[in-house]
Amino acid sequence: MLTTISWIALAIGIICTIIIAIDVIRHPQMMRIMNIVWPINGWFFGPFAVWAYFKWGRLKAKDANKEDDRNKSAKVFVSASHCAGGCTFGDIVGVPIVAMTGIAIAGSTLFAHYLVEFILAYLFGIAFQFLAIYPMDKDQGVMQSFKKSIKADTLSVITFQIGMFGWMAIVHYLLFTNPPNPSEPSYWFMMQIAMIIGFLVSFPPNWWLVRKGIKEAM
C-alpha cells in the first residue's frame, strides 16, 4: 500500500512540476531564479504549489498585467519558497552521493545524509539567494551581494534543514523497522513530506527576517 501511495504522490509532484515549468517557459519570471524555484517546489508541494504559482507567482512574470495585490503572508510564503527551492535542490543532489559512495558517520548512513545534504543545501540556498540579490544590487559588487545572501538566508536554511532532518529521524528510527533506501519510491515520498515540514519550520524565521528587514519580501 505504501509503495502505491508513494508512486501516486511522486507522479503528482512530477506532473505539478511540469505544469509550472511549462507556464514559466511561456511567462518567465522577472527574477530569473524563480523560474527554477517554482518548478522545484511543485515536486513536493504538489497541487498547492500550482495554486500558489498561478495566484502569486504569475503576478511577478515579466508579462504580468495585473496589480501585485499580495499581502505580507503571501510575500513571505514566496520568500520561504525561494529558500525551500535551494535547500530541496541541494538535498536531492546529496542523496545519490551518499547512496553511491556508501559513506557513513559513526556507523550511520543517516548522519552521512545529514552532513552531505546540509552542506549542499546551504551552498545552493545561498547561491539561490545570491541570484536573487545580485541582479538588483550590481552596483555594490559581488562580495557585498554575497554577504547579504549569507545574512539573509543562513537562518532560513538552517531551520528548513532542522525540520527536514527531524522528519528523517522519525522515519529512520520510529516509522520503519527497515527504513526505505533511495532506490525505493517510499524513500522519495518520505522526502516529499520532509520538504513540506522543512518549509513549515522555516516559515516563522522567514517572517522574522522579513520583518527585521534582513531579508526582502519577495
From TrEMBL:
The keyword Repressor does not apply. It comes from the Bacteria. Signal peptide: none annotated. Keywords: Membrane, Transmembrane, Transmembrane helix. The chain crosses the membrane at residues 6-24, 36-54, 111-134, 155-175, 187-210. Residues 75-215 form the DUF4396 domain. Pfam families: DUF4396 (PF14342). Coiled coil: none annotated. This is DUF4396 domain-containing protein. The lineage of its organism: Bacteria, Bacillati, Bacillota, Bacilli, Bacillales.
